[in-house]
Amino acid sequence: MEELAKEAGITARTVRFYRERGLLPPPRREGRIAWYDDHHLARLRTIAALLERGHTLTGIADLASTFESGRDVGEVLGLGEPTEETPVRLTPEALADYFEGEVTPENLATALELGYLATDGDEIVHISRRLLDVSAALVREGVPLSAVLEAGRQVRVHADALADLFAAMLSTHSADAGLERLRPLAKSVVEAELSMAMDRRIRRAPEAAENAQQAGQSS
């Protein structure tokens, strides 16, 4: 314990306190000797980094418990399955930097449930660089992370339905083509339709604002 504390730059008393609070897993024991490893050191450094970012010890314990209950990266990504998305490896403190003030046990539990996040030892893996960057950008625009995650949940329902639609079309009319070859064509159709839908919504926005203003004046 003293060697671990020295490596982490803290006191053995602090290490013992973290163990008692459930922030640090117990060591491996051989007789009367307790062995700590790189996993324990990484956890101590993570605790220190999250404390510097304003998290409380209780909050850190809740975050650790949430992560430990999550699925590992192999289960989430499905080893060997094709994907165009690029996973991103993050430390817990790096994730906190992406979503400053929004990394809560509740949001983490939702992200783990959706499969956006997975664990790999002391690291966190986000399944998609694009989703990570877009989610962070929305949070910087003032959208709560909880709302971003709920939107992602709803988008997935529609995305699954669209994938089923294209797969059914393929099986009916083009048995020689594979789903992988269909992917870029399906994406182009969806992107074009979404772009046109956003155009329609943008054009309607001034009219909706004007109608709301008139309704307010008449009342």
Could you please describe the fold and organization of this structure?
This protein is mostly helical and 219 residues long. The chain has three domains: 1-52, Multidrug-efflux Transporter Regulator, Chain: A, Domain 2 (Orthogonal Bundle); 71-172, no CATH class; 177-213. Helices cover 67% and strands 8% of the residues. The protein has helices at residues 2-8, 12-20, 38-52, 57-68, 73-77, 92-98, 105-114, 129-140, 145-173, 179-218, and strands at 28-30, 33-35, 88-90, 117-120, 123-126. The strands form two sheets. It has a three-stranded antiparallel β-sheet with strand order 3-5-4. Helix 9 packs across helix 10. The longest helix is centred in the C-terminal third of the chain and has 40 residues, at 179-218. The chain is flat, with a radius of gyration of 24 Å. The termini are far apart. The model has no long low-confidence stretch (mean pLDDT 85).
Helix percentage range: 55-70%
Give the neighbour order of strands across the main sheet. 3-5-4
- Could you say how many structural domains there are in total? 3
Shape: flat
Kindly name the structural category.
Answer: mainly alpha
Count of DSSP helices?
10
Annotation, overall tally of beta strands: 5
What is the subunit arrangement here?
Answer: single chain
**What summary fits the major beta sheet?**
3 strands, antiparallel
Q: How much of the residues is beta strand, in percent?
A: 5-15%
Outline the low-pLDDT stretches.
none
Radius of gyration: 24 Å
Provide mean pLDDT, rounded.
85
Question: Could you state the order of secondary-structure elements as H and E?
Answer: HHEEHHHEHHEEHHH
Distance between the termini: 71 Å
